[in-house]
Amino acid sequence: MRRLPRLALVLFCMAYVVPGFIGREPWKSDDMTAFGYMLALARGTTDWLNPLLVGLPPDMDGLLTYWMGAWALKLAPAWIAPDFATRIPFGLLLALTLTATWYAVYYLARSPRAQPVAFAFGGEAQPADYARAMADGGLLALIACLGLAQLSHETSAYLTQLCFTSLCFYAAAAAPYRTVTPALALLAGMAGLVLSGAPSMAVLFGAGSVLLCLLDENEADEARSLRWAWCIAFTTVLAAVLAWLLDLWRWRVALPQSSWTEWRSLGRLLLWFAWPAWPLALWTLWRWRKQWLSRHLSRHVALPLWFAAVAVSATLLTHPADRALLLGLPALATLAAFALPTLTRSVAALIDWFTLLFFTGSAIIIWVVWIAMQTGFPRQPAANVAKLVPGFVPSFSPTAFAAALGATLVWAWLVKWRAGRHRSAIWKSLVLPAGGAALCWLLLMSLWLPLLDFARSYAPLAQRVSSIVNQPECVEVYGLSRGQIAAFQYHARLDLKPAAMQAQCPWLLVDVDARSTLQKSVNLRQWSLHGAFRRPTDKNENVLLFARTTK
Fold first, then answer.
1. Band of the pLDDT at 319, cuts 50, 70, 90?
2. Is the pTM of this model over 0.85?
């Protein structure tokens, strides 16, 4: 059984993790909002247990995300940019997510019912080698998921929840084989989910894991299984009590509307977000149906099925839906890995051809648009960029170009390698999906990074306002979102205060959608409209700037 070389796997993961965490601006809106609270905590302008941003509390209940970024800011040297310093712990969280998923698949593949049938005369793969190959496939399936890329590179609570979910998943998977490491992972995962605002998910994951431990009849040591059931149950109760003590329980269930538009939107999300893991996961459930539907539990299918079912249910019943589905990706990738031994040659070839065409086409589009931005040719892509992103001035980075060119050459080599015969590599069918996802993400984060920063950052808007107001003693704000407030504080370095009936500052910033209620909080006779400013790439995001007329 051929394993993926460790060095190649580590380099591949680094090529996926690092882009998106370095060299970019904080993006709207969760990314910028979280950074604003982290900056306020690190500077000591707000309370650690009750952080406020110009009087507004966080819209997420768990504070661990903001604490991590603030701690990173306080520990980072002065020469490191603050926004990059806050992303360092989150890069480590993503790396820990990939690691925990690999080991979870490894230990699930060690289960007796997950092992391949022994040959009559021997020669089958050794259990450890087979499990490592399956773990490689599970990790590749996770990286290949299209919805993972952006959300896993943002400094938000959702990446924190993803990491702690993967730790809980690993703890339940490794329980029959290890003691200390799964116990620590379980404790950290449960506490982390509670402190990052997902106590209900922690309790559901824990309750299902307890039930699976009690129903599993295939463990060699039934006493060990019972001890782990009690351990998981005790930790789950502790997590529930911690959430109650911190007042983190919230009823957020919102049944989807009966409209066709709502269901179509959910269907599209389920279709693309977990691609290509979900069709392989369904194939696993079908091919292993005799085991997971029988009275003898197959933990390598039942455990990831429970974690995936909880995440999909949360997707249908909570908002935002994509953030909830993110937590199910490690489990879906695990189910996808167990489809690999049962794939026929024709199905594997179909996956390869579709992946090759899709990601190669996407990479060509990224390169063509970048060339058009640099040279003006072809004309149509250059005109499209100028229309969609007015005011953007392209720049050339030799480092970004070298990274993009290297990644493209590696993709070409990978396609050539996959065209060869590698029957012993069970993970070969997921090499191109994972490699293509990593390639396109790296190209976007290198060639298109200046464009994406301009389009998804509040920096252009904040800098336009700053060039007019200069550096006043303060600026009043009304109706601005948390992300906008954080952006004006960071990019424009403005001292913001909530708007009051009696004018306190020489300038007033108002979100255009809040203008209808402005007179209830502000004496409009003290202000005159100076101008309206729009974020260049969003015609619906405008702010109004008022100048004080009286002293």
1. confident
2. yes
Task: Please state the domain count of the chain.
Answer: 3
Q: How far apart are CA 403 and CA 397, in angstroms?
A: 10
Comparing 217 with 112, which gets the higher pLDDT?
Answer: 112
Please check whether residue 1 lies inside any domain of the structure: no
Report the distance separating Cα 357 and Cα 372, nearest Å: 22
Domain residues for 76? 6-342
DSSP codes joined into one string, 163-184: HHHHHHHHHHHHTTT-SHHHHH
Separation between Cα atoms, residue 428 and residue 443, nearest integer Å: 23
Contact 50, 57 (CB under 8 A): yes
As a whole number of Å, the end-to-end CA separation of the chain is 80
CA 465 to chain CA centroid, nearest Å? 31
Identify any residues that bridge with 528 across adjacent strands, giving them in sequence order. Answer: 547
Q: Give backbone dihedrals phi and psi of 114, rounded to 5 degrees, phi first.
A: -90, -15
The DSSP output letter for 58 is P
Please tell me the distance from the alpha carbon of residue 164 to that of residue 186, in angstroms, as a whole number. 9
Burial of 379 (0-12, 13-18, 19+ CB in 10 A): exposed
Burial, 526: exposed, middle or buried (Cβ in 10 Å; 0-12, 13-18, 19+)? middle
